[in-house]
Amino acid sequence: MKTNKIIIVGGGSAGFMTAATLISQFPNKDITVIESPNIPTVGVGESTLGQINAWLKLLNIKDEDFMPHTDASYKLSIRFEDFYKKGDGGFHYPFGNVVENDYLGSKQLWFYKKKENPETPITDYANSFYANMALVNNNVLFRNDDNEMPEFDFENNVAYHFDATKFGLWLKNNFCIPKGVKHILEDIKSIETNDEGITSLNNKHKADMFIDCTGFKSLLLGETLKEHFNDYSKLLVNNKAWATRVPYKNKEKELVPYTNCTAIENGWVWNIPSWERIGTGYVYSDRYVSDEDALKEFKRHLDSKGSDYSNSEFKNIKMRVGIHDRLFVKNVCAIGLSAGFIEPLESNGLLSVHEFLINLVKVMRRGDADTISQWDKDNFNVECKRFFDDFTEFVSMHYALSHRDDTKYWQEVSNRSFVDNRLSDNNMYLTLLAKMANNEWLRSDSGHHCIGVGLRYFGVDVLSDTMTDDTNIKLRLRDKMVNTWNIICRDKPKLLEYLKKHIHKK
Fold first, then answer.
1. Which whole number is the average pLDDT over 461-483?
2. 3-state secondary structure of 426
3. Are the beta carbons of 125 and 453 closer than 8 angstroms?
């Protein structure tokens, strides 16, 4: 299949991230974005994970390039509140690598500490192994250019809060169009096809390859090519969200370097502090609560936090949770919501976009630069589906291990048989839970152990061994290191001041 001329249907963050990626990596290709002037963007994805840094580096985009124009701030962690039980408090899943070695001991070490001192709070786990938490707990930020704190890698251990709509517009006006991407405002009223896929749009726009960035509508892949969509709602029941923005009351205090997720009656509420305002929303399932009652629950939550929403607009979003069988079919490739979507927990909305794009670049680079083989289409489909299903199973873990039982929603989502509803044919989720139960998961440097500990899932043998002199020495050394992190961070600028000095200089 030729790839010389590419048309991207749909704008927004997904469309212009796609255009930016392709024009940066394949500057000689003819790339056009056709965007409807009448379809608003969803705009849920205002929070990213650390993986976006690889995509930004691929395009040579620096923080100071886009952040001042996209209402952006930095993010170092995700906090989960009341997911274990109502009123239990919260725990963090920080970004960055776990600090463990022969000198300081492994993650297993913390469980000895917990055994000897049962009053040790759950929050101490993340504090003990992630340098990021020293910055989070002190609400500070610094670049660490002199490597004063070697365990903190600014370039890779930070993510972002930003306005996804503004991010798409910035990419369009400051990256895509200046580099040669064509932009057309036009509704797609007709799509012409043959056995090889799509031939033209509106009987005039022709291309070798079409990329579907039309959101949940999935105009090209779903509606036109009729590619089967796998509904994951049996595994993840949340399918609606109320979203809004509220002003800061105390910006220095409320502008924090983490996304907060709070479990409430029939779902959970996100809180994303960006530069100018706080983005917030309630993710829920309409199987358990009506839209009207969900809005009431959301407003009660905002009231409990003292948020002023008197001038806020509340937007209701319907989500399609799942993924198509194939994402690259004939001459059509889907990126973003048109391909698939996991509910917003763990800030995965934009994650799939940039990870799928990196995979697309890989397959387009192989072989003849002007063509793509069926083998590579299949490879793209397999890799993207594997990534998507793995992350879906990770998100479902937050519900499977919850002990909330205060509403029918929580009773059912925490007691669902996730094995019966597994996504993969290889019992991947069952294997994950088995590994966790037998402590093998502690050898992983992923977020599974943070979520597991936060939800009091320690494994069956994790506290079975006894303390030794060596264990006590390593515990003291680790506590000393954590204290050093906090001493360093106490003298660093608050996040608000750092942003004023380095990003938002007006």
1. 80
2. coil
3. yes
Transcribe 334-346 into DSSP letters. Answer: E-GGGTEE--STT
Give the contacts of 266 (CB within 8 A, at least 6 positions apart). 284, 285, 288, 289, 294, 297, 407, 409
DSSP string, 38-83: S--------B--TTHHHHHHHTT--HHHHGGGTT-EEE-EEEEESS
Question: What is the pTM for the complete model shown?
Answer: 0.94
Q: What is the DSSP string of 247-306?
A: --SSHHHH--SEEEEEEETTEEEEEEE-SSSEEEEEEE-TTTS-HHHHHHHHHHHHHHTT
In sequence order, what DSSP letters do the residues of 121-141 get, joined into one string? -TTHHHHHH-THHHHHHHTB-
Taking residues 305-318, report their average pLDDT: 95
The CATH class for the domain spanning 5-73+161-231+324-392 reads alpha beta
Of the pLDDT bands very low, low, confident and very high (cuts 50, 70, 90), residue 370 is confident
Would the pLDDT of 420 be above 60?
no
**Crossing angle of helices 374-400 and 349-365, rounded to 10°:** 160
- Strands 267-273, 278-284: parallel, antiparallel or unpaired by DSSP? antiparallel
Q: CA dist 102 to 32, 343, 465, 470, 471, Å?
A: 54, 39, 18, 11, 11
pLDDT-based confidence at residue 425 (cuts at 50, 70, 90):
very low
Strand partners, 105: 101
**Token reading at 54:** 């690889």
Q: How far is CA 207 from CA 20, 80, 192, 200, 302, in A?
A: 18, 45, 12, 7, 48
Tell which residue, 382, 388, 371, 381, has the closest CA to residue 328: 381
- Give me the pLDDT at residue 396, please: 86
Scored b (16 or more CB within 10 A) or e, 299-319 reads bebbeeeebebeebeeeebeb
pLDDT at 428: 47
Q: How confident is the model at residue 238 (pLDDT cuts 50, 70, 90)?
A: very high
Tokens (6 digits) for 173: 């006006």
Q: H or E stretch including 166?
A: helix 164-171
Count of helix runs (H) and strand runs (E) in the chain: 17, 21
Distance (Å, whole) CA 366 – CA 364: 6
Residues 115-150 have pLDDT tens digits of 888 899 999 999 999 999 999 999 999 999 999 999
CB contact at 8 A, 239 and 288: no
pLDDT of residue 367: 74
Say what the pLDDT of residue 98 is.
87
Mean confidence (pLDDT) of the chain: 90
Q: Give the CA radius of gyration of the chain.
A: 23
Neighbours of 63 (CB within 10 A): 18
Give the DSSP H or E segment for 27. Answer: none
